């Protein structure tokens, strides 16, 4: 560790213990044994009364230690929620069970809480063979009541803070965060000038996108490590980060640490509630409002003892989105009782009960309760009317109308109201004039309590910006004339863009299963259903538009599409089109083996939401995915699907709040290739551009600079310049290996810039691969540059490791940059089979085809098989053999299914491999075949059954030097695993 790093560490500790800080530096705690002794002492001191003056015996403390060996950081988080705010361990002492308090979350910054700092802890493993990884040393750790809660890794200023991130990831993978360190909930990394924090997760789940920097209340960054320490790691904030601002996401089984703007919003609501003030929070759509509003609702009940209930209010139309489900997922492990009301009577009973609880309900149920179900003067009427309630309203710009809110406030005279919105109503876009009712969000709820705009969120990498293309008809006298758009010619042009000019928008470069989704929104249900019918015709080959081969190479079944709308959007229209909806449900059922009918539209919508969100493991498989969903207004608000990349809009411009809400379905962060939310409009280009600019300015609290990406002309010009710069640094890829280190660094920087602009250029509808000829570069040349780039980057990284003490990092290079114009696609297995089938079928139906054309098709298939062979030579060999036979004999396989033939050949290969193994090891063929067909994730599912059916006696008799039984079993299973990985697994993949 360099002297500079030592200095950073010392300054951090000095800052933590400075002045009247409650942190105590413990230089004596360096090993796990030290920490357990220290923890035991604190536990005993805080539980003297429960222990009756008798300290824990060694065996009793072993019981405690066993309870603190967490299998995951999430499990530790579940335990840290506690029981009524108290985190407990339980010890059996003779016939008595002792309940000992480890931590009391009501004692933040006082009471029984003990705050300690340690450094240079030795994560020592005697069994580790590698001396370097055996003797790891941690930088600084913050402990609450003896348990490590926050761990900090520091790098000197010659490093990126990301080096600390990768170090933590490596330590977790090596199993260093076990034992007492398995309780850690938060990591902090810094190189002195840049500081980030993130929640604890396994090494496979640890992702840089979950890192966050700190912001002050005005959204100014706090990046210096000492300033960060003053703001976040002081008491009480550090304890609150663990106890109050960590959320357990039950669905994904991961910890979520709130971002600074979420914490500031919650604290602003808490401060306002203490003086009886209402107000609203403006946090841009996509920045995690549901999570913030959940914590705000829950914390209000904990912070304000005088409150009887807190109620999270949503609109009925949001019940078929993810809001209430997400709320429930966050609340699942909470110590506060969170209940969703099933009906109005259920709501009434919950309000009448004496339990202090968070209630999730709809505005409509609440309205019905006070207007229809409660009789004035009755005890229940009086009790409910006099409740002191804090209402938290999701999507408050539209969820509760001014008239409804006035009605509810009149009934609940002791209520406070806190609204959350990404798109407030301002004087520029007010509610309609209705008597003396409020017309803006501020007039309705009170002053703004915290603001976090699109501009702020993009700057913090909390959401993406938008790339907007207006490609509607130009030079129109009247852009609003519906006849221009409501015709088949216009609609087919729209579909051509979606199906044939959106390769990069939809992430096809990522490969099968990793592509993105899109929404097509129209002006009416009738237009949506016309689009649905046209898409079916395109897919069935009944139109002039054909999905191009480039798309089909990646997804042979593209496009997979559905339609969804709420029947309340157009009661009359939806009644007229019942048959159309039934037809689309039947298509969906056939596509995904579901059984929805018209009486189950709500359940169908829920399933569609989950399928689009892809948060469940099931929907990560291509066979369970959709590419496009056609909507009117449904899913344009409060729908979170990070893999949704593009919004195609074939309707007239919406109002500012509706525009931003719709756009924000696309700008969730997903992977390194998704750089923008993509928007394409097909109507009124001049009016739409004006509407978008105005909306973004309004909700950015200023300009459009960060929110709207550059347009085609600007990007194309920058791309040309970047290509010229790349050519100066390396005229051809062949020059690169002989360059000096300095020249290679310049090349890497130039290529990163070129790659970024090339990817952006490809994402425009205007782009076509044929343009590369005009730019004087080929795709093959780009791939060659990219290959050299990857090699050099790895070499430069290794150089940094050996010379970091004396040589500063080159400021030119982003070592964490991932290529985005580079294609990760593999030619799809089914696509190659279709190509082979087409050759066979054309012979079968006597299609007019010249020998040259036939040979061209065969050569094309051979190229694809050769490409497949780089990934899976086993299947490629089978395909090559079949194509060779077809080449020699035109009639070979005539009228047969190539898919069935190849699958049978694969099965025959598996059978031969299994037979040979069983003959060698005297194993049961039935059991080994079962293992072969069910082999997943390097696991043999029936290992014990294979061992049980082994004929060891025959093996022993037939061998000159038979292995002892235990060695025989071990070697046999080792060989079986090798065969599974190398011989059978490739034959199982498709």
Describe this structure as you would to a colleague.
The chain has 990 residues and is of the alpha/beta class. About 2% of the residues have low confidence. The chain has 38 helices and 25 strands. The strands form six sheets. A seven-stranded parallel beta sheet has the order 15-16-14-17-18-13-19, with helices on both faces. A six-stranded mixed beta sheet has the order 1-4-5-6-7-8, sandwiched between helices. Strands 20-25-24-21-23-22 form a six-stranded parallel beta sheet, with helices on both faces. The protein is globular. The longest helix is centred in the C-terminal third of the chain and has 25 residues.
Per-chain topology:
Blueprint: H1 3-17, E1 23-25, H2 32-46, H3 48-51, H4 58-67, H5 73-81, E2 86-93, E3 96-104, E4 115-124, H6 131-134, E5 135-144, E6 147-154, H7 161-173, E7 186-190, E8 195-199, E9 214-215, E10 221-222, H8 225-232, H9 237-243, E11 246-249, E12 254-257, H10 260-274, E13 279-283, H11 289-303, E14 309-314, H12 323-331, E15 338-340, H13 344-352, E16 357-362, H14 363-373, H15 379-385, E17 389-393, H16 402-411, E18 415-421, H17 441-445, E19 448-452, H18 454-459, E20 465-470, H19 488-500, E21 517-522, H20 525-539, H21 549-554, E22 561-563, H22 571-576, H23 578-592, H24 601-613, E23 628-631, E24 644-650, H25 656-663, E25 676-681, H26 685-699, H27 712-729, H28 741-762, H29 772-775, H30 779-803, H31 829-844, H32 851-869, H33 873-888, H34 898-921, H35 925-933, H36 943-948, H37 952-958, H38 965-988
Parallel strand pairs: 1-4, 6-7, 13-18, 13-19, 14-16, 14-17, 15-16, 17-18, 20-25, 21-23, 21-24, 22-23, 24-25
Antiparallel strand pairs: 2-3, 4-5, 5-6, 7-8, 9-10, 11-12
């Amino acid at each position: 560790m360099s002297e500079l790093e030592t200095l950073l560490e010392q300054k951090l500790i000095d800052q933590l213990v400075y002045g009247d800080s409650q942190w105590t530096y413990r230089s004596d705690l360096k090993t796990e044994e030290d920490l357990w002794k220290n923890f035991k002492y604190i536990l005993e001191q805080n539980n003297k009364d429960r222990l009756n003056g008798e300290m824990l015996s060694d065996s009793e403390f072993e019981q405690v230690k066993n309870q603190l060996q967490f299998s995951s950081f999430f499990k530790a988080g579940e335990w840290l929620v506690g029981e009524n705010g108290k985190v407990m361990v339980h010890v059996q002492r003779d016939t008595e069970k002792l309940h000992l308090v480890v931590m009391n979350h009501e004692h933040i910054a006082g009471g029984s809480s003990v705050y300690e700092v340690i450094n240079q802890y030795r994560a020592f493993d005697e069994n580790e063979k590698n001396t370097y990884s055996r003797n790891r040393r941690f930088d600084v750790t913050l402990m609450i009541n003896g348990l490590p809660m926050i761990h900090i890794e520091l790098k000197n200023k010659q490093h990126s803070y990301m080096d600390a991130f990768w170090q933590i990831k490596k330590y977790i993978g090596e199993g260093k965060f076990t034992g007492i360190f398995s309780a850690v909930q938060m990591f902090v990394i810094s190189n002195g000038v840049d500081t980030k924090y993130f929640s604890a997760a396994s090494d496979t789940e640890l992702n840089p996108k979950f890192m966050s920097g700190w912001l002050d209340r005005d959204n100014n960054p706090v990046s210096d490590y000492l300033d960060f320490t003053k703001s976040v790691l002081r008491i009480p904030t550090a304890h609150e980060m663990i106890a109050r601002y960590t959320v357990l996401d039950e669905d994904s089984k991961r910890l979520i640490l709130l971002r600074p703007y979420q914490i500031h919003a919650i604290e602003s609501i808490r401060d306002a509630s203490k003086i009886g003030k209402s107000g609203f929070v403006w946090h841009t759509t996509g920045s995690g409002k549901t999570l913030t509003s959940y914590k705000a609702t829950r914390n209000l009940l904990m912070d304000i003892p005088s409150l009887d209930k807190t109620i999270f209010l949503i609109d009925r139309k949001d019940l078929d989105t993810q809001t209430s489900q997400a709320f429930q997922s966050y609340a699942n492990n909470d110590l506060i009782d969170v209940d969703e009301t099933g009906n109005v009577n259920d709501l009434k009973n919950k309000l009448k009960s004496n339990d202090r609880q968070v209630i999730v309900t709809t505005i409509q149920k609440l309205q019905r309760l006070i207007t229809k179900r409660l009789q004035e003067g009755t005890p229940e009427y009086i009790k409910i009317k006099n409740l002191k309630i804090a209402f938290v309203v999701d999507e408050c710009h539209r969820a509760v109308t001014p008239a409804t809110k006035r009605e509810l406030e009149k009934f609940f005279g002791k209520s406070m109201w806190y609204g959350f919105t990404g798109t407030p109503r301002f004087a520029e876009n007010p509610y309609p004039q209705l008597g003396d009712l409020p017309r803006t969000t501020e007039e309705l709820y009170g002053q703004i309590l915290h603001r976090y705009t699109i501009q702020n969120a993009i700057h913090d990498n909390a959401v993406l910006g938008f790339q907007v293309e207006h490609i509607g008809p130009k030079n129109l006298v009247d852009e609003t004339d519906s006849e221009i758009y409501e015709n088949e010619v216009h609609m087919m042009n729209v579909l051509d863009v979606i199906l044939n000019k959106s390769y990069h928008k939809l992430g096809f470069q990522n490969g099968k299963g990793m592509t993105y989704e899109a929404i097509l929104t129209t002006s009416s249900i009738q237009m949506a259903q016309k689009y649905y019918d046209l898409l079916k015709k395109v897919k069935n080959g009944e139109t002039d538009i054909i999905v191009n081969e480039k798309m089909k190479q990646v997804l042979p079944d593209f496009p997979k599409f559905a339609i969804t709308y709420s029947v309340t959007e157009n009661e009359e229209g939806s009644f007229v089109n019942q048959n159309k909806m039934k037809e689309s449900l039947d298509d969906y059922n056939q596509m995904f083996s579901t059984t929805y009918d018209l009486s189950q539209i709500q359940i169908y919508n829920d399933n569609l939401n989950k399928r689009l969100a892809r948060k469940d493991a099931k929907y990560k498989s291509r066979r369970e995915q959709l590419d496009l969903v056609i909507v009117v207004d449904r899913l344009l608000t409060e729908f979170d699907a990070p893999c949704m990349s593009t919004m195609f809009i074939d309707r007239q411009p919406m109002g500012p709040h509706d525009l931003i809400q719709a756009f924000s379905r696309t700008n969730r962060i997903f992977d390194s290739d998704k750089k923008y939310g993509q928007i394409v409009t097909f109507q009124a280009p001049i009016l739409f551009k004006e509407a978008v600019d105005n909306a973004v300015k309004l909700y950015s609290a200023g300009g459009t600079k960060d929110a709207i990406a550059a347009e085609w002309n600007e990007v194309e010009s920058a791309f040309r310049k970047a290509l010229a710069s790349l050519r100066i640094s390396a005229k051809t890829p062949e020059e690169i290996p002989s360059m000096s280190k300095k020249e290679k660094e310049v090349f890497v920087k130039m290529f990163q810039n070129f790659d970024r602009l090339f990817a952006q250029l490809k994402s425009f509808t205007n782009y076509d691969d044929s343009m590369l000829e005009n730019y004087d570069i080929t795709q093959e040349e780009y791939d060659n540059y990219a290959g050299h780039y990857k090699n050099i980057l790895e070499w430069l990284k290794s150089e940094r490791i050996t010379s970091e003490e004396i040589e500063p990092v080159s400021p030119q290079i982003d070592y964490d940059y991932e290529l985005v114009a580079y294609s990760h696609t593999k030619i799809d297995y089914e696509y190659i089979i279709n190509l082979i089938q087409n050759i066979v079928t054309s012979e079968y139906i006597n299609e007019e085809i010249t020998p040259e054309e036939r040979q061209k098709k065969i050569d094309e298939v051979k190229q694809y098989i050769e490409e497949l062979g780089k990934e899976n030579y086993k299947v490629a060999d089978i395909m090559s053999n079949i194509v060779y036979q077809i080449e020699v004999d035109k009639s070979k396989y005539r009228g047969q299914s190539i898919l069935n033939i190849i699958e049978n050949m694969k099965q025959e290969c598996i059978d031969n491999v299994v037979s040979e193994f069983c003959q060698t090891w005297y194993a049961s063929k039935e059991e080994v075949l079962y293992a072969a067909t069910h082999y997943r994730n390097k696991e043999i599912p029936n290992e014990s059954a294979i061992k049980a059916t082994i004929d060891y006696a025959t093996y022993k008799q037939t061998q000159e030097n038979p292995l002892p039984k235990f060695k025989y079993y071990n070697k046999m299973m080792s060989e079986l695993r090798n065969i599974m990985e190398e011989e059978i697994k490739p034959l199982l993949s498709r």
